Structures are given as structure tokens and as C-alpha cells.
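Collaboration report, partner site 2.

Our partner group contributed sequences for two proteins of shared interest, and the home lab folded both. The records are reproduced in the order in which they were received, starting with the first partner submission.
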Amino acid sequence: MGNEQHEIGIVCGQCDTWSPMGAASCTACDNDLALFGSRQSVLPTPPPPAPVRPAVSARPATTPAPPLPRPAALSPATNPVGPRRAPVAGAVAAQKTPARSEFADLSQEELMEQARNYVCRSCSSGVPSGHKFCGRCGTAVPLEIMNAQTLFFGDMQNPAKAKLILIRGEGMDGLSFHLKAEQHIVGRNGQLVFPDDPFVSPKHANFFYRDGKLVVRDEGSLNGVYIRVRGTVDIVPSDTFLAGEQLFRLDASPKPSDGQDPDGTYFYSSPKHPSPFRLTQILQGGAVGMTVCARGSSLQIGREGGDLNFPGDLYMSGSHCRIEESAGKFSLTDLNSRNGTYVRIKSERELGHGDYLFIGRKLLRVELNTN
């Protein structure tokens, strides 16, 4: 008889008294009973009183519909997440039609400009080009901006294209000019315009491509195009070059003129020394400044300690450059000066990556694709 306690029945939740199946109240304390299994197997979730009605237990064999309300009735207590799924599904359906992007009406050039100077819409912090997220708040960069960045950087991977970087430009430093066309006229008029520089001619120079190489041509400008010397270059008399802020011209030694006058008189002067060449300083407006004759086969220019010194020139190195003569030929050597020595090109010149050019008062650096 002791084993009968393990049969299916009802256990009172107040006094823990076992009652047979179907009892509506506890036989000991008259407490309303809920449906339980045996003492060893208790149901995980207490159902409401409705399932113990005789009508509910009498119909499962004929119709499967009555068991379905039980999960619906129990779901608010056992799984409160379930009722919230309906609004979530509605929200997903609403997102299938995205809002119109603020960048939708911009041209490709405008998008690239936005990409280069993009500001996070959440925290107003600048986002460097190529970054996918804001470094301050983590907001994602819009897809349109990312695509524009890819196009901008990818364009420079074309080996036939180059750009000019303005190194010294009187407030315009850092500007870059992309040489994407076949020809690019530089001057006060043209594709690359410097209207504020009085030393730039209306049509000063032309950058163009020939056989995949970048070439610069002087278009008959008054002041010419100067390219930075790498190591040592050959020069000839009448060539001009820049060192610091000084402009020089190489001149051959003049013909002897120390003979007698028709009346037999000699011109009185300082002692004369043999000199293979001389340098002439050219002042603004074309006037002639200092003229220095080389005492030997070379002449050195610098800020101090040379044959020709310019202690007040901030762009001149201590030992800046040297001009040498050998067997009637002349060479110009840059002595690793900080700001470089520049020689005027004749007609045109093929350019390489890292070349520096002076056009008027503008210093430009050439950047070619090196991938």
C-alpha cells in the first residue's frame, strides 16, 4: 500500500497532502488543487486551473484543437520573448526600403572631395581617408564615401599618370595637381594657373606624356623652368642656375683686351690673374650684380667659407655648390645642400619620380606611380 503514493495524483501545495486524481480540493485543508505528477516527477510549469476541468480531459481523443490553447496560455509566463517577435518582424520589413542617402545626388568628383575631407555625422570628428569607421565613436563610414575613396586612391595606380605637389607656394603649400590629360599648360592661364605669381608667364610651361614618360617643356617663358640637380650635371657658358635665392650665369673668360691703345698707352688696372671662367649674379629685372672670376679650375658657392659667400641667404647652405672646368668643359655639382641647386632646362626635359622644379616662385615636386 505504501507504493500507492507514487501513482499519479494531486499534491496540495499548502499542506503537502496527496489526493487522488480528479479531486478539486485538498482532503486535509480544502485548498484548491493544481495538477501535479508523482512526488518524484513534478511538472516543470504549473498550469492554470482550466486544464483540470472534466470537459478538457474528455475531448483530446476526438479533436486535436484543445491542446493548442495551453502553449498560448502559458507563453506569457514561460516565454515572454515570444509576444515581442511580431513588432521585430515588422521593423525588419520596414527596413527593406532604405532612406535616401545624403550623397545620392553628388557627382563622382564631389564624392571624392567628401571622401578626402569626411567628417563623422555622429560626433563631427574628421575621419582619415581609407578608414571604415570613425576613430572616436566607431560610426561606420557610408558606403558611398568608401567607394569614392577606393576610386581616388586607385586612380594613382595608373602607371601613365602623375601629379605635382606644390612645396612652396606663398600660402598654397600642399596643393596637388593630378596630370590626367595629355597636356597641361602651366601659367597665368591654362590648366594649372598661378595668377598671383608675377614671375610666371601667361603660358609658361607644358607637362605632357610621351611614350608613357612625363615631359616638361618651356613654352618660351621669360624666367624659364629650373630642375633640381642630382649630383653633377654638365653646363656650358650662358647657362643659368639657382642656388639659395641667388641666380647665376656661367660666363666664359673674356678675350684679352690688355693691349696698347692706338697712341701706345696701356690701361691701368688691378693685377690680372688667369681665369678659365667667371660667374655673374643676375639681379631682379635682369641687372648684373657681382661678377667673380675663378682663380683656379673650380669655384665654390655657399653661405661661408667658399669663393662666393652669401651669409644673409637663409636658403643657402654653408657649402652649397661647386662649378668646375676640365679640358674646356664645365660641370655643376650640388654639395648635398638642404634646398638644392637648380639649373634652367633647355627646351624640354623628361622627368622622374621625386624631381623638383621651380616655375616662377613656385616649387613643385613630381610624383610618379612607383608600384
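Second partner submission, folded after the first:
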Amino acid sequence: MKLPTDHPSPLVRGLLSFWAPTAASMRGWALASVVVNAGIAVTGAGVRVTGSGLGCPSWPRCTPDSFIPVAHPEVSMLNMLVEFGNRLLTFLVLAVGVGCVLSALRLAPRRRSLVLLAWLQPVGILAQALWGGLVVNTMLNPFTVGMHFLISTGLIAACWMLYSRSGEGDGPVRRVTHRDIRRLGHVLLAAVFVLLVAGVTVSGTGPHSGDDRASRFDLDIEAMARLHADLVYIVVGLTFALVFALHIGNSKGPARRAAATLLGVELVQGVIGYTQYFLAVPAALVLLHVLGSTLVWIAALRVVTSLRTRAPQPDHSPTEVPATV
């Protein structure tokens, strides 16, 4: 019997690679999980800025009587389709998560670290889906909406760790730079997460609630925006310090490139943030800002994982050998 790796179509080989995984294909599934989880976080913001947060006014059904969009007197069909489309994307994210789990289970030799990280995905996605129901049932309460995004950042972190670990071994961690520089990287990652929390709070205080019936945080939007900007300066300053430290420390290329990339993404994100503020927060720029926030988080995760390494894994798996039954 031929294995999926013998199929003539590269697309089919890629889609079925979870059944006969290699170290490289396992890493590919992990990268796909990063992309789809980041994507659904951004499309979720798209639901909010288009006013479609309650396009499907019930959960798990779209309407009280139907799982799919049907004409509803209080909701436009466009808003309903936007919200329903975002719900459907959950199945794509779940499918990729399941692909990661099967790849980790089928990889030979099996690596417990990868299996545990892979299982975080379907479990986290199901928890995220249940939380999405809470978001709808609380009429887009800003706390539940903000937590919905922050849970996505946690899932992205788990996906990135799976991606990073699939290209490494399971030996002890080895630093590729000075201990204090690595600590600076961890402080930077924590600062980026605090910045994301502040951004979520600003979003829950300002416009674009997702629906006219949604509540808002009872906070001063100007004060929250200034706090958010102050945190941006701290994060950019820490990133610049890390870039400088890696340069004068003559650190390896991957770590220096990761830090420089993070700094570049932060500067672009800063331009978008100030532009949306002075243009009275247009919906399109809010969506672009959420994309930028997600990319900053991924770039920060990349920085941290570039500051250490483990013994590399061989780039083959015994499951690649054609089997006969």
C-alpha cells in the first residue's frame, strides 16, 4: 500500500502529510496553525468593525430557529453572513489543529513535547468556540470580547512553540547569546502582552463595539489611549535595546534578524495607530491595526525562541518509507 507521500500531486501530499509526517511536514502543519489562528483573530475584529457582532443573535444556532443564516426582522442579511462566515472559519482552524495532533502522534520517533503542544490546539479552539457563545450571550460585553482576542493570542503562542520545537530536539536548552540578553527578550515579550491587554481595553472603550446594543467600558478613552501610547514607547525602547545588545554582543544571525524584524513591525504598527487616532478611528484602519498587533505578537514570540536552541531533529521519519500490507 502506498503512503500519501507517494501521491503525484504536491497539494495532496501536503494535505495528507499528517499520516506520514516528517520533521519538515510537522513543522509545516505547525506553521499553518499559526497562520489560521492569527487569521481568525483578525477576521473576528472584522466582524466587530462591520457592526456584525450580533449578526447571528444566538449561539450555537445563528438564529433561534436555524443553524444557518435566514431572514431575520432585526438583523441585516449582510451582517448575518459576516458573523456566520467567521463561525465557519473555526472549522478550518480546528481541522489544522487536528492535523497537527495526528502529525505529532504519527511522527516516528514520537516526541512527547510535540504531542502535548499539538493537543493544546483542538482543546483551545473548542474552548474558544464556547467562549464565543458567551460573547454572543452577553451581548458583546467588552470584557468577553477582549478575552476572546486574548485567548487567541494564547493559542498563537502555543502554535508558535509547536512550530519552534518541531525544528529542534528535546535536549537541554542552550543559549545562543548572553544570559541577560535572553532575560531582556523575556521582559520584552511580557511587555508586548501587556501592550495587547491595554489595546484590548482601549478597543472596549472606544467605538466599533460590534453592535449598537453592545456595552462599553466606563473609562476615559483619551486617558486609555495615552496609556496605550506610553506602553508602545516602552516596548519599542526595549526592542531597540535588544537589537543593540544583540549587535554589540555579536549574536547569531537568526536572533539579530528576528529582533530587527520585530522593531520594523512595531514602527509600522505605530504609524497605523497614530493615523487611525488622528482620523477618528476609521474601521479599515482598526482592522489593519489588529492585524499589526497580531504580527507584533508573533514577531515577539519569534524573538524569544531565537535566543535559545536545542539539539536538532533529523529531517526524516521512518514513516516516509513505503509500506506494503
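Feedback sent to the partner group on the second submission included the following. Residues 77-106 form the longest helix (30 residues). The chain is about 65% helix and 0% strand.
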